[in-house]
Amino acid sequence: VQLQASGGGLVQPGGSLTLSCVASGRIFSIKKMGWYRQAPGNERELVAEIIRGGTINYGASVRGRFTVSGDIAKKTVYLQMNSVSPEDTGVYYCVADLLEQSATGIGLIDQLAWGQGTQVTVSS
Fold this sequence. Notes:
There is one protein chain. The protein has no helices and 11 strands. By secondary structure, it is mostly beta strands. The strands form 2 sheets. Strands 2, 4, 5, 6, 9, 10 and 11 form a 7-stranded mixed beta sheet that branches. Strands 1-3-8-7 form a 4-stranded antiparallel beta sheet, with no helix packed on it. It has strands at 2-6, 9-11, 17-24, 27-38, 45-51, 56-58, 66-71, 76-81, 90-101, 108-114, 118-122.
């Protein structure tokens, strides 16, 4: 399973940025898909996630500024980041809680898959 994230970069305070992620591989089903981030010296934290069925969760620090969207059935998720501040700087990871088909074709593997991360830097 691979999660390919894109869209990171340098953005000025108050600006906007959109991240995209697509999952591929032997995916049987996805239970939830979203974004975590990690700033230097900090632990990884939830940014936003979509749960199959439609429930959406946001981290407290981004609620009202960021919007997560996507289609779990199509294995894609996006993160629209508005009104960014330097505190939003960090590596953003696409994450998917999913069932993977085993290589033998028999059985399913429950796993939490992580993408490689994309750097977001908010600075003037």
